[in-house]
Amino acid sequence: MHLNELKPKTPRKSNKRIGRGGKRGTTAGAGTKGQKSRAGASVRAGFRGGDNRIWQLFPKQRGATKKHGNKSPHHKHRLYQTHNAKPWVINLHDLGGFKEGETVSRETLVQKGVVPANARTVKILGTGELKRKLSFTDVVVSASVRSAITKAGGSIATE
Q1: Is 136 within 8 Å of 105 (Cβ atoms)?
Q2: Which structural domains are found in the chain, ordered by start?
Q3: Which residue has the higher pLDDT, 102 or 61?
Q4: Which of 18, 35, 85, 110 is the 20 to 30 A CA-CA neighbour of 135?
Q5: What is the arrangement of strands in the sheet containing 140-141, beginning at the earlier edge strand?
Q6: DSSP letter at 118?
């Protein structure tokens, strides 16, 4: 016995090839002509031959669920960016209203009017100079700001 003589116990059965011409099964139940009779072609759901989709025929009513500002807006809406809420960005020169030894946090920045009250997180970037010794809590700082804080003698509280 050789390898090319091995055969499975159950012989392979090929599928019936219908709709390929010959004596039987010419159209195979797909009709004669048209898009749905062609091999590999299909009509997507909701397609009405190039006409408007059925849901586009109805007028837009009040209370549509995918509008901006709704409790559950659509996640692909161009105005809906709460999934990746970006921090409010300020620079070192914006911290001029703080005195020596004060604490810079999101709450104190809101109190001094540097950032709006709806800012969830605050990031401080390194444009400007830091001339006072300040302590930073509850804010995100860049690498250049981190070095400027340690150079001025300040501190950063890490969570």
Answers
A1: yes
A2: 88-156 (3.100.10.10)
A3: 102
A4: 85
A5: 88-91, 122-125, 140-141
A6: T
